[in-house]
Design goal:
globular, 17 strands, about 200 residues, four-stranded antiparallel beta sheet, mainly beta, about 5% helix
């Protein structure tokens, strides 16, 4: 894979097609991190995570250090990966990743967006939920939900603890510690690449 100037983007590891649009996963060695990384591209450049990554926090208001969940099931953390996955955030330049060797066990929290026909209803969805959810903390004032309606909806950003099903009958969600590792960032602009990208033999 090369950019508009013929500069190497990375080695293609896979191709995928969705409704006529083709994208690729490529690997590239990043000198600043001394590691190989894998990330998505298409002809327009880096493939962004349009909705942003699902960050985890150790605070009940979802502030402070950001973490990525780490799953070590089936020996997933016994050896470092050949290439580490990069997530390109919505700004198109910031890439995020985590190292499983830095994982920590703690009670983590993440942001969930609740929508309702009224601001009060959205707030109650967060703080006074039905029995199958645990209450959370409202972290921003209610705001008009984007791309909804009619009728228009009101959204609330709610910080919720990670849970598993447990407790006495009727069994419901119980806040539960899990593993996560601190988020690292790098700027893909350091690669010096110019779209459009294309395949090259």
């Amino acid at each position: 894979m090369v950019d508009a100037t013929g500069k190497d983007v990375g080695a293609v590891t896979s191709l995928s097609s969705y409704y006529g649009s083709t994208s690729a996963s490529v690997t590239r060695f990043v000198d600043s991190e001394n590691e190989w990384f894998i990330f998505g591209v298409d002809t327009s450049g880096f493939r962004k995570n349009d909705y942003g990554s699902d960050f985890q926090y150790t605070t009940s208001n979802c502030t402070g250090t950001r973490y990525f969940q780490v799953n070590c099931d089936y020996g997933g953390c016994t050896a470092p990966p050949l290439a580490r996955r990069l997530s390109i955030e919505p700004d198109g330049d910031t890439a995020t990743f985590a190292r499983e060797t830095e994982r920590q066990t703690a009670q983590y929290y993440s942001v969930t967006v609740f929508s309702n026909a009224s601001a009060n209803g959205a707030l109650l969805d967060c703080t006074s939920p039905p029995p199958f959810r645990v209450p959370g903390t409202v972290i921003d004032p209610p705001y008009p939900c984007p791309d909804t309606g009619p009728p228009p909806q009101v959204c609330v950003n709610c910080c919720l603890p990670n849970t598993t099903v447990g407790g006495p009958p009727p069994r419901g969600p119980v806040p539960t510690p899990s593993d996560a590792a601190p988020v690292h960032t790098l700027s893909v602009s350091q690669f010096g690449l110019r779209p459009p990208f294309k395949l090259k033999r």
